[in-house]
Every structure is written in structure tokens, then in C-alpha cells.
Amino acid sequence: MPRKNVITDAGLGIVAFVLSVGVLAADGLGTPETHVRHLDALGVLLAAASALPLAARRVAPLTVGVVTIAASGVMYRLGYAFDLPIGPAVAIYTIGLTCGGDPRPLRRRLAMLAPAAFAPVVAAAYAARGEDVAALFAPELVGLLAASAALGLAGDRTRLRRERIAALEERAQRAEREAERERRLAAAEERTRIARELHDSAGHAINVILVQAGAARLLHDRDPASSRRAITTIEEVARDTIGEIDKLVRALREDTDAPPAPPPDASALEDLVRRHRQSGLEIDADLTVPGEAVPRSVAWAAYRILQEALTNAARHGRGTASVAARYAGGAFEITVTNPVTANATAGGGHGVVGMRERASLLGGTLSAAAEHGVFRVHASLPVGRSPNGGRPLAERATGTLDRGSASARGEAA
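That's the histidine kinase sequence above. Prediction below.
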């Protein structure tokens, strides 16, 4: 038990003892009766027995209640003017406070009987003195019984209120812990997403820069104009990538939940195909979108999946790819196929893992596998609604660029 409670209970017992002795010394409250027994050494001892045990009221409430009530009954029997039974009152309140919710049935029943025990003890003491209890003390005993019951009920209500407060505090602490855990999980997921975005952006940009730099080097002497265009493309891609990486790093530093602005709709896929054609990849594209705007989450995932698939096609393939995007059964379907070299490793790195994770976050699926020298990526992204018609983004168009020549730029998109 805390030291503060011990000191408080000891002080309470001393105060109750002093007040009890004072009442006995004054021969009760109000005008003393002629037959009252005056205070003596025995009265002091009985007053101490009725008050000082309160120092242990939290440790043994039932024992303290029995001792204080018994000592009070003896004082009534001997004729002391014990008009202020502070010790029994505090003991009854403490029993209701500490034992009312006890899981042990016996202690719980005793806690219920304790408030009703004081009045019968006093009645028995008056009867032992030869008093006519029914005629002289009936109203007093009824009031004493009501006061005892009120004290026991007050103790039990206080216990229930404290338990409710403790339960609410525990619930609040648990909710705070859950909220903190959710914040940490959200932060971890955000960092994973940022890492995925950084991989996609940097991988795409580096691949474009690599192809354009090679074309600029090869065409520097025989076609300076095409070489300059390739260098201009490198500059544009590098500038865009630096801006996007800056946003991602800022989000990582500031721990913000705001992602980089995604493409407004699936029409951004056409721009992505055009950029890859300009980098030297021959692309056969068949792209359609519905009449309504695609949800931003689906548009963003479709954009990144197609970007990664085309990056892998340029890095590990033979310079050609076929792209198809359409609605089927309430889902946005993306298929990218490209021939691969014998030693290609497309599909085994972090790019495919990122694509698959993007699709799964939307409740979709993604498959990526190489078979008979052709690598195929197929993603199905549910949009949560049926498409409202469709319009072609680009009729079937084949880029005419050679991987090593930046001079013949496909503008079919």
C-alpha cells in the first residue's frame, strides 16, 4: 500500500479517536442525561478500539468493521454517551468501497450485511441495559439503520465510479497505443511507397538517359541535329526526374502523407508511350480509356506499371514492345509483351515486385513471366464501377525508331 495512504488512514484514526474522546468527555451531544456514565480509563480504551483500527481500514476492512462496531456496542452497553460513532461510520463506508466488488462470494455477502449490522448491535446493547428498545429507541434505531445503509451504498457507488474511471483511462491509453501503432505502420507504408516511387522514377529516367546518350554519341559526327535532339531529351528527362525525386525526398524528410501528384487520368499512358518511343523503343500500342475519368489511384498504378514494364523492355528486350490497355469486366487491363535476350533477367528484380504490390493494393492482380523468348506483363486493376463507353487514345501505331537512331522519332502518338 502506498505510504501516502498509510499516513492518511493513521491520521483519520487519530482524528476519530480525539473526537470520540471529546464527545465522551462532554457526556454526549446536547444536554447530558442523568444516568450517563462519565468518561474514565475504560471509556478511553473503548474509544481507541472504536477509532484507531481505521489505520488498517484498506488492509483488513472487514476486521476493522467488526472491531469498531463491537467496541461501540460495548460503550452503548456500559452507558457511555457515544453520540458520534465516527469509527463505525468510516468502517462501514470502507467496507462498501473495498469489498462490494470482491470476486469472492463470502466477502461480497459480508460487505452487503455490514451496513445492517450496526443498528442491531446498538439495539442489543440497549436491551442488555434493561431499556425498552421498542418504546424508547425505535426511531433512533431506524435512523441509525438508514444512515448505515446510506454509508455502505455511498462506498459501493464510489467504488463503481472509480472502476469506471479506471476503465475509461485504460481504454484511452489503449486507444492511444493503437493510434501510435497505426501512425507507425502508416509511416512505414509511406516510406515503402516512396521507395517504390523513387525506384520507378529513377529507373525509367536512367534508362531513357542511357539510350539517348548512346544515340547522341553515335550520331554526333554524322547527324549533329539528331545528336542535339537526343541531348535535349536527356536534359528534359533529367530535369523532370530531379523535380520528382525532390518531391519524394521532401516527403520522406517531412513525413508527409501527400504523394506526388498522379496523372489526372489514363490518357497519361499515351505520353508515356511517346516518351519511350523517343528514347528508341519501337512500340505497337492499342490504348483505350472510358468516357469517364479513371480513379486517380487506378490511373497512378497503371502509369507506374506501364512505365516499369516499358523500362524493362528497353533494358532487357530487343528494342520492340507491344502495349494494350482496355476495360474488361469492370477492370483496367494492361498487357505489355516484348522479346527478350537469352540472358535477360527481367521479372526477377525489384521492379516486378513493385508492380505486383501496386496491383495488389488496389485489389487487382499482376502476372509477369518469360516464355519462349517473350516476356509478358499483364495487370488487372479493378475500378469499382462499369466503364461508360470508351474512346481510342491512339489507333494501332507502330513506332519507327531504331534503338540506335534518335533521328527517326515516332510521332504516331
